[in-house]
Amino acid sequence: MNIIEAPLIHPLLKLFRPSIATCAIERLADGIHSALDVSYRGLGVFGFARFGKTEAINYLMSHLDWLKDRTGALLQVDAPDSRKRTDSTFYQSWLTLLGVRIPPRAQPDELCGLIMGRLIEVAQNTNTRLVVVFIDEAQRLLPLDYENLVSLDNRMTRAGYYFFAVFVHQRDITGYSNEVIANNDYPPHVAGRFLIRKLEFTGLQDVEEVAFALSRYDTGTEWPPGSGIGYTQHFASVAFVNGFRLASYAQALWDAACHLRNGVRLPPNWTWAMKSFEATVVYLLTIIAPRSAQFEAFTDADLKEALEASGLIELELSRYTYQPQGAK
User: Fold this and answer.
1) Cβ distance 312 to 280 under 8 Å?
2) What is the value of pTM for the model shown?
3) Which of 200, 184, 171 is CA-nearest to residue 322?
4) How far apart are CA 286 and CA 77, in angstroms?
5) How far apart are the C-alpha atoms of 284 and 302, rounded to whole Å?
6) Which of 50, 89, 158, 284 has its CA 20 to 30 A from that of 121?
7) What is the torsional sign of CA 86, 197, 21, 72?
8) CA 52 to chain CA centroid, nearest Å
């Protein structure tokens, strides 16, 4: 049987599109370094839905240059979603996500040892003593889970390895502020390790951050690999040669987005969620720009069309109309 190779598809046309660098991702990387510099074992990251938290994790895991002079083994897990836990639930969940077979009738101490063994194996494969675990959906964690992490950290430390957890919280679920989450009645041995350092993960906060994100499509991307052709140039090649750059539309896009939000009376102070921002950019490059072989520039109507197609307003409204659990 002949094997037919699939044609090359541009990354922006795939189901799972690549992440691009943003100022929020840079702040997250800096926050991890800052916590490590003073020997904390954790960083709490708090942000609203669709702001790009999970994509930030994926970006950091696939672009290791942010570690700078450090060498680290990076892993990603989801917090258990069951509210009814046994002493083994947390460890069993992690072992499943880490691809480790769970022995029948294993006790919590044995399960903790299996996790430690897996983390050390990953560290040794990376030739490092630092293991950074991104815990997504960390708002699900219960006090017992943090106690389990303390036990794991103690074992890792005795073995000569540095365990560091990045707790990524979804603020929409509970409506809690960072301070409310951090000041739950966790004992000092938990709070002192994992809950002191906090970071707010935002969307794009202003025109300058929009311009930076747009510039990554101009010069911070490449396809095919080794070609030196950025995403903007691929979809608007003629215009690109004549000086067309996405970054030059930062102010116009920001103003158009604000205008749409004002039209449905959303609060004027906001940060642009990466979900609708990325969808806007992809629509502009893959739908609007290729419409004409003579494409030279986006019109105001083009920007509005892309913003509407991205679901910007629907996403913003969903956040402001949602009633968190326990809200009055």
Assistant:
1) yes
2) 0.89
3) 171
4) 33
5) 7
6) 89
7) negative
8) 5
